[in-house]
Specification:
This protein is α+β, with helices and mostly antiparallel strands. Helix content is about 35%, strand content about 20%. The strands form eight sheets. Strands 4-3-2-1-5-6 form a six-stranded mixed beta sheet, sandwiched between helices. Strands 12-11-10-8-13-14 form a six-stranded mixed beta sheet, sandwiched between helices. The chain has a four-stranded antiparallel beta sheet with strand order 21-28-27-24. A hairpin with a 3-residue loop joins strand 25 (about 520) and strand 26 (about 525-530). The protein starts with 15 loop residues before the first helix and ends with a helix.
Amino acid sequence: MYEARLQSFAAPAAPSLGTERLRLLRAELERRGLDGFLIPRADAHQNEYVPPCDERLAWLTGFTGSAGVALVLREAAALVVDGRYTLQAAQQIDTASFTVVPLAETTPERWLEQNLAAGAHLGYDPWLITVDGLDKLRRAATNAGATLVAVDSNPVDAVWADRPAAPLGAVTLRDPALAGETTEGKLARIRAALAEQKLDALVLSDPHAVAWTFNIRGADVSFTPLPLAWAIVPREGRPSLFIDGRKLSNTVRDALAGVAEILEPALLEKGVELIAAGGAVIRLDQATAPALLAARIEAAGGTVSSGASPVALMQAAKNAAELAGMRAAHKRDGAVLARFLCWFDQEAPKGHLTEIDAVAALETFRRETGALKDVSFPTIAGAGPNAALPHYRVTEATNRRIGMDELFLIDSGAQYEDGTTDVTRTVAVGTPSPEMRDRFTRVLKGHIAIARAVFPVGTSGAQLDPFARQFLWSAGLDFDHGTGHGVGAYLSVHEGPARISKVGTVPLAAGMVLSNEPGYYKTGAFGVRLENLEIIREANPPEGAERKLFAFETLTLAPFDRRVLDLALLTGEERAWLDAYHARVRAEIGPLVDGPTRAWLDAATAPL
């Protein structure tokens, strides 16, 4: 019915493969004189999405989640995962060879303390662990009486016979009209930040920061237009960009050569050593920089300043051109969502649709815009009890037919050259139960509370987070994920450093784009999540205001399913907000859709 899908729904490899691969790895560790090895789900940049050549954890264990670490010793092996993945891990791995360890019960470090033998040699890849991570690992080894060994090459790679090659995605230059600021201007701001913090240089280990700084995009990983690259920006002098030259056309190379020295990644270690040799103070991003670089800096006589990269806040606060692009992308995406929701309303009650059908349809509609570069993350499409799994990803093995009188949750996003989208809607098929209506309405009330919030400059996401939870809390309910995350401008759909969550301590700033996505999940029954993206903007101060205020501007344009509302729970102000939002959706999206979709949209956005 639809074109080739943009994502694979195949089930993971058989767990039995993990047993043989574990045997091969242990033989390689014995050959190297190691008693154990740490295998994190990570690449050298700590990316959320990693290229196939860096999926070592998935190759070894069969576990395909986005976070986890395997701990392999001579007589024991564990896979430590957080609460999102305990069930998935148990289904995907050979539990006779690996023990699934919930992170809430035992950290990797604690497990090592309990299982490492005194005198053991534990290996780790210094490219795949951060400085902070190494400090924790070192304490665990010391407490166990063991010794840490940094390997020169990863032993997993030595036994991974058909390991894919490193990606060579072509690098493109960002359209100046979409970037809104030249590379020279960004470098000047970075240098000013280095001077203010008394730093001699900054290592950009996060490819998102490299892409933003040099106004480039790439194609090295799925879902995010990243060029895997590094950079060193000195406080004085010319920056160096370390990137595989095979990714650069002559036009791109010439443009980049005008602002930086272009070097191969193999020269990165030498580059940091040369700067450090004079006793320089060099900032490493504590969230992404590998421990190996810190060791090289210190060995060369430099000083490591471990902290947040100053680029993170600059990148998060979008300029006027970036925000204009985001608005255009969301308007285009809103028309797609209206088409999809109209189609879904017609087809789902017929009883033949599956979760995969819904994902394929939505991705096809996005592709037919002619502007889609990729989806921004694997689409979450959960029917009935599957919607109660916040990070559910449908496969051929779990694919469920969408039934009557249940809720369907779809969380999806797109990468367009002018912006990144992320939107979640929960819709009814048939007649929702009173409990479904109650929970849906409480989630929507929390969503509206965030959207309507006005708050003083300096407010953090943790201070706003209770706004989204209050109506669930009053009924003895809650949700376990954050309320909102940052979103990039044709970059990562999960962008730091700010977020709306119980632990979101970074002050919010004008120009940041954050998601607003409270939810509720009843295990084995149904789930609700309602998500829009919001721009932080300056608010018009009321008379007598003593402080500068911020407010949110909603980017996402898609109807909420009024059929699942318990109208008795909505206040007059909440009804007015919903009617105004729906009127805006109708006015902005209506002219962009076909006749049948327009008729559906008019009905879906009619005043309450």
